[in-house]
């Protein structure tokens, strides 16, 4: 399967490289309309995945990751339209100069070629990945999880039909329909066809691909995200932000998993937070030796501070100063997103300078670490590595570059 998909994708990548910005944008607008037109079909196929998940005892939070509704399909269509409106990075001149030999050198953005994605649960990734890859003239091979296979098949069916209707090769997108681990492993070894592999999912999936893949990967990390409530925090603001970051959608990687609180405000803040959050959605707090005397919960273990719960669970650590807070977050975090709540400018600047993460906030919810919220239209993942791409990965992250050199007959002696 991977060999066939890979050959088709490799050929498609050369064809896609010829497409103009106008042609790409026209396809994306057509796809947005097609998704809306096929809402009933997509929702019907998605219902099969939802039923299977519920029959297998999947909890409500994880089922919500799978769910596609008419409203969510409208959001997907809007994301595609936003990608279409963004500047096309392909062909952009990054820099240019004339060297000592009189050669005119241009560094220009080019497509990567064929991008592979292995992801879990959320079928909207299918649309995000395709729209970003297509806009950057890349072919993409998608391998979602078995829990979303019917949804992914439906979405790729709509994509392929739209491509054909626009006179573009349907092999711009490929879907791995065999969701076995063996086929996923074959994908990790497909260096002949894939230029890069992007895993998107839980820590276990990402670790496995990182360890086993021979294809170069862009690591999108799990989100053990922290919020630090400083001694100079506005506690009403802090309460609002923590509630939003924890319970608004706990199953996503930018949801907060850990709360760090300065000891000078812990006694005032923690009971206030628990009362307010209980009114919205009760949370199972895992509490350190100080916090357990200030709110209701269970004693925290060391593992609790490094866990991405993706649920209504949150660890709480009380610290004596900002340095301890930074050290705690840098030790247990996954370099995804962190936030400080403070009215002290010096503390805010120190936190942003010293926290090792792709996105560092002051007085805002971590839920904004998202390609759509950042104005990228969508994202193919949130990179927690430091080479090539970091944070929400939009169009530029899906390009490489090459040098174009023009001479007048120069030879090198």
TrEMBL record:
Catalytic activities: L-glutamate 5-semialdehyde + phosphate + NADP(+) = L-glutamyl 5-phosphate + NADPH + H(+)
Superkingdom of origin: Bacteria
Matching InterPro entries: Ald_DH/histidinol_DH, Ald_DH_C, Ald_DH_N, Aldehyde_DH_dom, G-glutamylP_reductase_CS, Glu-5-SA_DH, GPR_dom
Localization annotation: Cytoplasm
Domain Aldehyde dehydrogenase: 7-281, 314-375
Subcellular location, principal: cytoplasm
Coiled coil spans: none
GO molecular function: glutamate-5-semialdehyde dehydrogenase activity; NADP binding
E.C. designation(s): 1.2.1.41
Keywords: Amino-acid biosynthesis, Cytoplasm, NADP, Oxidoreductase, Proline biosynthesis
Pathway: Amino-acid biosynthesis; L-proline biosynthesis; L-glutamate 5-semialdehyde from L-glutamate: step 2/2
Gene Ontology CC annotation, any one: cytoplasm
Keyword Oxidoreductase: yes
GO biological process, one term: L-proline biosynthetic process
Functional note: Catalyzes the NADPH-dependent reduction of L-glutamate 5-phosphate into L-glutamate 5-semialdehyde and phosphate. The product spontaneously undergoes cyclization to form 1-pyrroline-5-carboxylate.
Family per similarity comment: Belongs to the gamma-glutamyl phosphate reductase family.
NCBIfam families: PRK00197.1, proA
Record-given protein name: Gamma-glutamyl phosphate reductase
Annotated organism of origin: Pseudolactococcus piscium
Gene name of this polypeptide: proA
């Amino acid at each position: 399967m991977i060999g066939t998909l890979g050959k088709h994708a490799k050929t498609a990548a050369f064809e896609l490289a010829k497409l103009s910005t106008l042609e790409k944008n026209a396809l994306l607008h057509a796809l947005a309309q097609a998704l809306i037109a096929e809402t009933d079909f997509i929702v019907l196929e998605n219902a099969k995945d939802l039923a299977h998940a519920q029959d297998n005892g999947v909890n409500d939070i994880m089922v919500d990751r799978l769910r596609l509704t008419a409203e969510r399909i409208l959001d997907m269509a809007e994301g595609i339209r936003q990608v279409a409106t963004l500047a096309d990075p392909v062909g952009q001149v990054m820099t240019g100069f004339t060297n000592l030999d009189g050669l005119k050198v241009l560094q220009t953005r080019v497509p990567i070629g064929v991008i592979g994605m292995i992801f879990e649960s959320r079928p909207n990734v299918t649309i995000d990945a395709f729209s970003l890859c297509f806009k950057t003239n890349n072919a993409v091979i998608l391998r979602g999880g078995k829990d979303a296979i019917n949804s992914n098949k439906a979405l790729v069916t709509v994509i392929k039909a739209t491509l054909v209707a626009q006179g573009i090769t349907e092999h711009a997108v490929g879907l791995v329909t065999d969701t076995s681990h063996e086929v996923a492993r074959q994908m990790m070894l497909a260096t002949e066809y894939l230029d890069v592999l992007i895993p998107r999912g839980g820590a276990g999936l990402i670790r496995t691909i990182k360890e086993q893949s021979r294809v170069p990967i862009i690591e999108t990390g799990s989100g053990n995200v922290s919020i630090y409530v400083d001694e100079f925090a506005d506690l009403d603001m802090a309460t609002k932000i923590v509630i939003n970051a924890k319970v608004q959608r706990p199953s996503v990687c930018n949801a907060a998993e850990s709360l760090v609180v300065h000891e000078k405000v812990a006694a005032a803040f923690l009971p206030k937070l628990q009362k307010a959050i209980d009114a919205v959605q009760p949370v199972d707090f895992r509490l350190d030796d100080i916090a357990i005397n200030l709110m209701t919960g269970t004693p925290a273990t060391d593992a609790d501070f490094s866990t991405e719960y993706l649920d209504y669970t949150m660890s709480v650590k009380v610290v004596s100063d900002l340095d301890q807070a930074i050290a705690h977050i840098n030790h247990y975090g996954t370099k995804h997103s962190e936030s400080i709540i403070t009215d002290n400018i010096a503390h805010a600047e120190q936190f942003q300078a010293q926290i090792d993460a792709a996105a560092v906030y002051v007085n805002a919810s971590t839920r904004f670490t998202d390609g759509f919220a950042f104005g990228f239209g969508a994202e193919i993942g949130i990179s927690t590595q430091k080479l090539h791409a970091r944070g929400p990965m939009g169009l530029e992250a899906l390009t490489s570059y090459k040098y174009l050199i023009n001479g007048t007959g120069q030879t090198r002696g």
